[in-house]
Amino acid sequence: MFDFKEVEAFVWITRLGSFRLAAQHLHLTQPSISERINKLETTLETRLLERTRRPVQPTLKGREFYRHAEALLEARQKALSMMALSTPFQGVLRLGVVETVAHSWLPGFLAELARRYPDLTLELEVDSSPGLAAMLTAGDIDLAFLMGPVTAENVLNRFLCNYTMGFVTSPSLGFTEDNFSLRRLNALPLISFARNSRPHHELGSMLHQMGLDDVKLHCSSSLWTIVRMTLDGLGVGAIPPRIVAEEIRQGTLLSLPCELPELTFTASWPTHMESALAEGVCELAIEIARQDQEAHNHQG
After folding, report:
1. Domain 166-256: CATH superfamily, name plus number
2. Which end of the chain is more exposed for a tag (fewer CB within 10 A), N or C?
3. Domain 4-83: which topology?
4. Which of 81, 22, 69 is nearest to 43 (CA)?
């Protein structure tokens, strides 16, 4: 039997005409939403979507099922609204977060988590994404907000937010938005995340493609150490500017142009975790992360 998550995925792909847009709307990764559609089609023993067409279109059977799918979702929403349940989660939640989250919207998230679920006790771990992924698969934490998705078996992922990467520098180094170029670094290093991290790998690849293998790339597992070294003019920081929004506003750091890929963050948890708790906490995290990004986009 299919479940509502699979039906919801089908409805939003049909409405938006795209797996990618539907995944973003539902705060899922594309592989996750594709898996839901595959399961739904397997259960119904029929193909529902024409994947080769752009935009994606439902098949004849898909169009017929779409009417019923919308009615199912509407009935479910009415039932939930009538019940108006607020799950009184209790016990301990072992949550792991990366520093990028800890230095941005985590305080707001923790305050709202305590307000909504006062009987929930929190154990917080701050570590790198690889470290948190290892802790998650080892059963040392229940839920992680990290650069994902985690590809291990029996781990579920939901899209949280994207962070734009950028270069930031101390004004004392003399760079401006107009004159900055990686080729002007000379002996100055770039300072970024730990060597085993995705940002470090992507930055190294970009330097290699530009023929700048001689540029030094310092790394640290501590985000605050990167910020401190950048403030002291020891190099150019390669981090999300959101993390140092206050320093940029005060003029102690300057944001420089950058074409690095965005960092994608997910909420990841093992399949054996109570689904209602995982979904409830994830929905709150998505809400707070969205509010944080909207606030800083407005300020920018």
Report:
1. Periplasmic binding protein-like II (3.40.190.10)
2. N
3. Arc Repressor Mutant, subunit A (1.10.10)
4. 69
